[in-house]
């Protein structure tokens, strides 16, 4: 399994992003994760298609939007803390402000599920969530999640 620290560069950590919806979040993450093989629209469509299957909101203000795509060469991640919580259709009906996005190669099913499980476990810890809400720098986020 790829550790989150190996796939989450500091450049993919955004703190206090001023957005108002899940759609805008996916658009911004699309711009962030786009590369020579994957357009911003590809990222948006991948995340949006997965979200149509059911919310990736976990509860407690956390969501882990994720998707598999044929043009993703290596697993990659982004972390966004929103300036204001946004609706994510989470099971506890609470808005979300901590978002960890995963994009994985189409064939990486096992590694994908393992990483999702690891992140869900990490985010279930109240202290971890509180630390992520109070971080002032991307390096602090990376250290907490690693």
UniProtKB/TrEMBL annotation:
Q: Which PROSITE patterns match?
A: PTS_EIIA_TYPE_2, PTS_EIIA_TYPE_2_HIS
Any one GO biological process: phosphoenolpyruvate-dependent sugar phosphotransferase system
Q: Name one Pfam family in it.
A: PTS_EIIA_2
GO terms, molecular function: protein kinase activator activity; protein-N(PI)-phosphohistidine-sugar phosphotransferase activity
Q: Which UniProt keywords apply?
A: Transferase
InterPro entries documented for this protein:
PTrfase/Anion_transptr (IPR016152), PTS_EIIA_type-2_dom (IPR002178), PTS_Nitro_regul (IPR006320), PTS_SugarTrans_NitroReg (IPR051541)
Asked if the Swiss-Prot or TrEMBL record annotates the protein with the keyword Ribosomal protein, the reply is no
Q: Which SUPFAM superfamilies match?
A: Phoshotransferase/anion transport protein (SSF55804)
Name the Enzyme Commission number(s) assigned to this protein. 2.7.1.-
Q: Which residues form the PTS EIIA type-2 domain?
A: 6-146
What name has this protein been given in UniProt? Nitrogen regulatory protein
Q: Which organism is it from?
A: Alysiella crassa
Q: What is the lineage of its organism?
A: Bacteria, Pseudomonadati, Pseudomonadota, Betaproteobacteria, Neisseriales
- What gene is it encoded by? ptsN
